[in-house]
Design brief:
The complex is a heterodimer of chains A (about 110) and B (about 110).
Chain A (H helix, E strand, L loop, with lengths): L3 E3 L2 E5 L4 E6 L4 E9 L5 E8 L4 E4 L2 E6 L4 E6 L8 E9 L7 E2 L3 E6 L1
Parallel strand pairs in A: 2-11
Antiparallel strand pairs in A: 1-3, 3-8, 4-5, 4-9, 6-7, 7-8, 9-10, 9-11
Chain B lengths: L3 E4 L2 E4 L5 E7 L5 E7 L5 E8 L2 E5 L6 E7 L2 E6 L8 E8 L8 E2 L3 E5 L1
Parallel strand pairs in B: 2-11
Antiparallel strand pairs in B: 1-3, 3-8, 4-5, 4-9, 5-6, 7-8, 9-10, 9-11
Classes of the chains: A mainly beta (about 110), B mainly beta (about 110).
C-alpha cells in the first residue's frame, strides 16, 4: 500500500526550513528518501531502518518513528539546489526489498 | 563511468509494436529493478531480480517481460505496445536485502503514438 506524503507542495525562500512527512498504514522495516529534479532520475538521500534512528548529512536529516509508521525529512536553511520532488519509499516487514513510493512532495526554493 | 545506464533514453513508437529497453549496472549490486513513472510522477515497481532470479513480479500485463542474462543486466521487453504504456521507465539497482538505497538509471521516456 502506497505511503502518504504531506504536504503535496511547498514553496520556500532561500534559507527557510521545511519538513516533509511520510506515513504508512503498515508496520515498516525501512523508509527511503529520494529527490528527483525535473527530467532526471530520483537520487537516493538516505535510508532509515527499523529502530527509530535519526540520520542526516549537511542540512538534510530525517527521523523514523516505527511505532507510528511515520518518517519526516527535515531541510534546514534551504538552498536553490534543494528544489525538486521528494519521494519517500517504504518497505514493510512482510516484503523486504520492495520499496513502494509515495506520491511525492514538490519543493520549490526561490531567491 | 555511469553507474546504472539505460538505453535508449527516448523511444517513440506506434501502437502494436514490440520494443526493448536495456539496463546495465557497474556497481556490483546484486539486485536490479524496473519502475514505471507515469505522467503524475507516481513511481510504481514492476519487477526485481536478485542475481538473475525473479523476486518481485507486480501486477503488470504479461506483455511486459523482464530478462536478466547476468546480475549486471536487466532488460525489459514490451509486446504489443498500447497508448497507456507511455511513461518513463527507470531501472535501478541496490545491494539488496532491504538495507540499502537504490541507484537509478537516467530513465527511458517511452511514447506510444
Amino acid at each position: 500500500q502506497q505511503p502518504v506524503q504531506s504536504p503535496q507542495a511547498v514553496i520556500l525562500r532561500e534559507g527557510e526550513d521545511a519538513v516533509i512527512n511520510c506515513s504508512s498504514s503498515k508496520a515498516l522495516y525501512s523508509v527511503h528518501w529520494y529527490r528527483q529534479k525535473h527530467g532526471e532520475a530520483p537520487v537516493f538521500l538516505m535510508i532509515l531502518l527499523k529502530g527509530g534512528e535519526q540520520k542526516g548529512h549537511e542540512k538534510i536529516s530525517a527521523s523514523f518513528n516505527e511505532k507510528k509508521q511515520q518518517s519526516s525529512l527535515y531541510l534546514t536553511a534551504s538552498q536553490l539546489s534543494y528544489s525538486g520532488t521528494y519521494f519517500c519509499g517504504t518497505e514493510d516487514e512482510t516484503s523486504y526489498d520492495k520499496v513502494i513510493f509515495g506520491p511525492g512532495t514538490s519543493l520549490s526554493v526561490i531567491p | 563511468d555511469t553507474a546504472v545506464s539505460q538505453t535508449p533514453k527516448y523511444l517513440v513508437t506506434q501502437m502494436g509494436n514490440d520494443k526493448s529497453i536495456k539496463c546495465e549496472q557497474n556497481l556490483g549490486h546484486d539486485t536490479m529493478y524496473w519502475y514505471k513513472q507515469d505522467s503524475k510522477k507516481f513511481l510504481k515497481i514492476m519487477f526485481s531480480y536478485n542475481n538473475k532470479e525473479l523476486i518481485i513480479n507486480e501486477t503488470v500485463p504479461n506483455r511486459f517481460s523482464p530478462k536478466s542474462p547476468d546480475k549486471a543486466h536487466l532488460n525489459l521487453h514490451i509486446n504489443s505496445l498500447e497508448l497507456g504504456d507511455s511513461a518513463v521507465y527507470f531501472c535501478a539497482s541496490s545491494l539488496g536485502s532491504g538495507d540499502y538505497g537504490y541507484t537509478f538509471g537516467s530513465g527511458t521516456r517511452l511514447t506510444v503514438v
